[in-house]
Amino acid sequence: IGGNKMYTQAAEELNFPFKRIGSFVVALEDNQIKQLEEERKKGTEDGVPGLEVILDKKKIKQMEPNLTDEVVGVLHAPSAGLASPYELTFALAENAVMNGTKFFRNHEVVKIKHQDYVFTVRTFAGEFQGRNLINASGLYAARISRMLGLDYFSIMPRKGEYILFDQYCQ
Known about the structure:
Helix content is 32%, strand content 22%. By secondary structure, it is α+β, with helices and mostly antiparallel strands.
């Protein structure tokens, strides 16, 4: 919730595209309306602003004409936004470097120790120490987390393709 509020200012300061477009959770059957209400209540309790369950089909169609006519209701979250994950990642990395962060790529981690508020990361290339540690190890994130005693998630790799076009491409 706090991060959502920061995106507008961060987009301006770090120069990445961000647009608040809102989002819908869609119900296609009447028995799903109760779930929308529960999600609205939970979200409101968590501090998500402006959540609204909309049952008026005409209003829903005006807000999003591409939805199927079978929609019986939606949970509208107007504060939801959209950012390019690529541009956001590069903007954050550039800002981090400007603030003294160093990135060490292609350094296989063999051990991590956390003691007295300091992380010691041992790699085949040597040891690194710091107060903060960001696990940006991709497919190896679960393995790195286990080195810290965190074993509550796993990585399920899959193949795919991404195409990144130049922003000025016609």
